[in-house]
Design goal:
This protein folds into 2 domains: 51 residues, no CATH class; 156 residues, Nitrile Hydratase, Chain A, CATH 3.90.330. 45% of the residues lie in helices and 11% in strands. The protein contains 12 helices and 4 strands, in the order αααααββααααββααα. The chain is globular, with a radius of gyration of 19 Å. The termini are far apart. It binds fe (iii) ion. The site of fe (iii) ion has 6 residues, from loops.
């Protein structure tokens, strides 16, 4: 028996026994014992989540920056656009990509809990789930962004999108100035998870600014 109470290790967890992990383990055990879920189903779900990461979002954004037709498809029908790049965001949840422009900056939050475009980006960061972010993102979005190191110019409208169980948002940031010669792969490296939530924006690498 391993430390997780049965005879295989859980991948991607490296779990230390905080109260919440203990609670999760107990629930997991109970769900299996009661026959609600099988171990295999739990493992499938873990693999599914582990295969999602902000790199998916970065790939979508870089493609949108270099291919106008793809950008339009991404904005109009996010699910099929992700499918084009080999991602599987199928399921009942609706995805909406909101585009930053010189006039509008978008910020994503879930005021109620932690709804996030998990099927594309994987698990949300801890700060996204915090009570502080959930309440302040709506009340004082500019102050929140400032703390992340970015604030849109005064004349830019900040739109805050409140995610729900049914609708998940992702930001399409603007392509930074001075990245003209860059290919999709290099561009994708500029796109951080935070910029996909809208608390920051991608920046050109310094040698491109020179
Ligand atoms: Fe939520």
């Amino acid at each position: 028996m391993s430390e997780n109470g049965h005879d295989h290790p859980h991948p991607g967890t490296g779990r230390t026994a905080t109260p919440s992990t203990l609670r999760v383990r107990a629930m997991e055990k109970l769900l299996v014992e009661k026959g609600v879920l099988t171990e295999a189903e739990i493992q499938d779900r873990i693999s599914y989540m582990d295969s999602r990461s902000p790199a998916n979002g970065a790939k979508l954004v870089a493609k949108a920056w270099t291919d106008e037709a793809f950008k339009n498809r991404l904005l109009e029908d996010t699910k099929s656009a992700t499918f084009e790049l080999g991602m599987d965001a199928s399921g009942p949840v609706e995805f909406i990509v909101v585009e930053n422009t010189p006039e509008v900056h978008n910020l994503i939050v879930c005021t109620l809990c932690s709804c996030y475009p998990r099927a594309i980006l994987g698990r949300p960061p801890d700060w996204y789930k915090s009570f502080e972010y959930r309440s302040r993102a709506v009340k004082e979005p500019r102050a929140v962004m400032r703390e992340f190191g970015y604030e849109p110019p005064e004349n830019v409208e900040v739109r805050v999108h409140d995610s729900t169980a049914d609708i998940r948002y992702m930001v399409l940031p603007m392509r930074p100035e001075g990245t003209r010669g860059m290919g999709e792969e290099g561009l994708a490296e500029l796109v951080s998870r935070d910029s996909l939530v809208g608390v920051s924006v991608p920046e050109a690498p310094s040698h491109f600014n020179a």
